[in-house]
Every structure is written in structure tokens, then in C-alpha cells.
Write a structure and sequence with these properties.
The protein has 293 residues and is α/β, with parallel strands linked by helices. It contains ten helices and nine strands. The strands form two sheets. The protein has a seven-stranded parallel beta sheet with strand order 1-4-5-6-7-8-9. The site of iron/sulfur cluster (SF4) has 11 residues, from loops.
Length: 293
């Protein structure tokens, strides 16, 4: 199998095998991310992809799911993605679900009709690393799109019937804009129909522009308590009928699971308890030991 650099897979997708169809990230400019800094974006040659599928046809001929790599294989045009999906179906004829991640902007080069055809070929679930629905924050972290673009592109997925995830990056607006980041993100996410909203917490990794800005006093990171307060504000304002995942572990309550709206009050109450009584030093120690997103 061809794999380039560090392989990141979505830990919540129960999918196997992995197939690299692109390397790196087309954007590679988000101020908090180092994941693909040393891996230039490239589309895998079709011969590599076919070699890997031949191998998978021997080792995993009954595969029903597959996760496409790397950061944003969704960026490939319909004309490039469709033949890859056709090849996957040829070598793995029981394939049902093709999962892939992407940026909001990766949908711009596809029409709704093309997305429908890609769904027929197996592209059933997409994870969008949205991070924020607040324009100030999106500019601040250099995401390369605004809230209006999120709404426009998510509508296309809804029309095409493709399930999608949206991520919220807790803490990424710093103290300067935490409240607006939480409320405006929840407002924009709530106008979409994601099957799942996932939240991760910002860690400032060495080599990131955001850490350098923090060291120069231009970005003020949130404390663990402020992270929880921001997450609570986001959850309070989120009205999507979706599943919900958070990296925050709160003692005694599982915040992650389906039926977000039915569980929302419990999640808010658990976050509130954690803000008042949680072991915030322990949370800070866990964050300090993280080595990548
Ligand atoms: S966060 Fe995602 S889009 Fe941004 S640079 Fe990292 S991999 Fe690319």
C-alpha cells in the first residue's frame, strides 16, 4: 500500500481499509495546524491507486467501507473522483460506504448533480473541518472561507443527500473573540443539517503561527475553564438534530452520542458541573501532552 508521511484517520469512522488518493492538504495555511506542513499536495497516480486496490481485493475482498486519504481528497473534481470511485467498486464489489474528509471550499468545484452521481458511486459520508462559523475567527485562523460559504456548500450536500459532519474548534478564537466564535458558530451550524457535530479543543503546537502569535502576545489562549465555558455556550446555542462528539471527557456523563437535542440539557448541566468542580489541572496536563491534532 502507498502511504505518505503520517497517516491521520478519523478515529470515529469505523472504516477499514484506508486508501490514499491524495497526499497533503491543498490549503496548508490554517494557523493552528502542522499536520501536513512537510507534505506537498499531490494527487496519487492512478497506477498507485489501482495497485493498492488490487492488494485490497486480495486481503479484504468483502470490504463494505473505505476511508480515502489524505487531508482533503474531496478537493478532486468530479472528473477525477468518479473514476476512482468506479475503480473502488470494481475491485471491492461489496463496497457500500466511501468516507472522506474535506474543506468547505472543496465542494465549490462540484454541482449538485455531480454530488448525486458521486453518492451513487458510494461517496456517502463527508467530514468537513469547518472549525468556526464566525467570520472574524475564520479570517483570524486563515481558514480561507466565510460563514456564507459554509451555508452555500452544505446546502449542496443536503440537496445531494450526502451525510456530513461539521467540526467546531473550541478555543481557536482566543480570549479576544471566544463569545462570538461560540455563538456565531452555533448559529451557522444550526442552519445546516449535519449528521454529526464534533468538537475538538485547541492545542498550540510548536511550529504553528498561532503559537508564535501567542508568544508575541497577539493571541491569548483560553484556560481550561474558559474552554469549557466556550463549549457550553456553543452547545447552548446549537439546535441541530444530530449526533454530537466532543474530545472533552467529563466525569460521570458521556457527552458523545446520538440525539443531541434530546441530550442537550444533560450535556449543558455536565459541562456546568465540570466548570465548577472539574479537575482543570488534569485537563491542562492532558492537553500539554498532546503531540498532534
Ligand atoms: S486544518 Fe485541515 S485544511 Fe487547515 S491546514 Fe490543516 S489539514 Fe489543511
Amino acid at each position: 500500500m502507498h502511504f505518505t508521511g503520517t497517516v491521520y484517520r478519523n478515529p470515529y469512522w469505523p472504516t477499514w481499509p484506508l486508501l490514499e488518493i491524495t497526499q497533503g492538504c491543498t490549503h496548508n495555511k490554517c494557523k493552528f495546524c502542522t499536520m501536513y506542513r512537510d507534505v506537498p499536495f499531490r494527487t496519487s497516480p492512478m497506477e498507485w491507486i489501482e495497485d493498492d486496490l488490487r492488494e485490497l481485493a486480495k486481503t479484504d475482498p468483502d470490504a463494505r467501507t473505505i476511508q480515502l486519504l489524505s487531508a482533503n481528497p474531496l478537493v478532486l473534481s468530479y472528473g477525477k473522483l468518479a473514476p476512482i470511485l468506479e475503480m473502488i467498486n470494481k475491485y471491492l464489489p461489496k463496497m457500500e460506504y466511501v468516507y472522506l474528509a474535506g474543506r468547505v471550499t472543496d465542494l465549490k468545484n462540484k454541482t449538485v448533480d455531480e454530488l448525486k452521481k458521486l453518492k451513487e458511486l458510494g461517496m456517502r459520508e463527508i467530514s468537513l473541518g469547518v472549525e468556526s462559523g464566525d467570520d472574524w475567527t475564520l479570517d483570524r485562523i486563515n481558514k480561507g472561507y466565510h460563514a456564507a460559504g459554509i451555508l452555500e456548500q452544505c446546502r449542496k450536500l443536503e440537496e445531494a443527500g450526502i451525510d456530513y459532519w461539521m467540526t467546531f474548534l473550541n478555543g481557536v478564537a482566543g480570549k479576544e473573540h471566544s463569545r462570538e466564535h461560540a455563538i456565531n458558530s452555533a448559529t451557522i451550524f444550526s442552519q445546516c443539517k449535519p449528521m454529526l457535530v464534533g468538537t475538538g479543543g485547541l492545542t498550540l503546537f510548536p511550529g504553528t503561527p498561532l503559537l508564535e502569535e501567542a508568544e508575541r502576545g497577539e493571541f491569548t489562549p483560553l484556560s481550561e475553564k474558559e474552554m469549557l465555558e466556550e463549549l457550553k455556550l456553543f452547545v447552548e446555542n446549537l439546535t441541530c438534530d444530530c449526533s454530537f462528539i466532543t474530545h472533552h471527557t467529563v466525569s460521570g456523563v458521556n457527552l458523545t452520542g446520538p440525539n443531541f437535542l434530546a441530550r442537550k440539557e444533560k450535556i449543558v448541566a455536565a459541562l456546568d458541573r465540570e466548570i465548577k468542580q472539574g479537575d482543570l489541572d488534569h485537563m491542562a496536563a492532558i492537553r500539554a501532552n498532546k503531540r498532534s491534532l
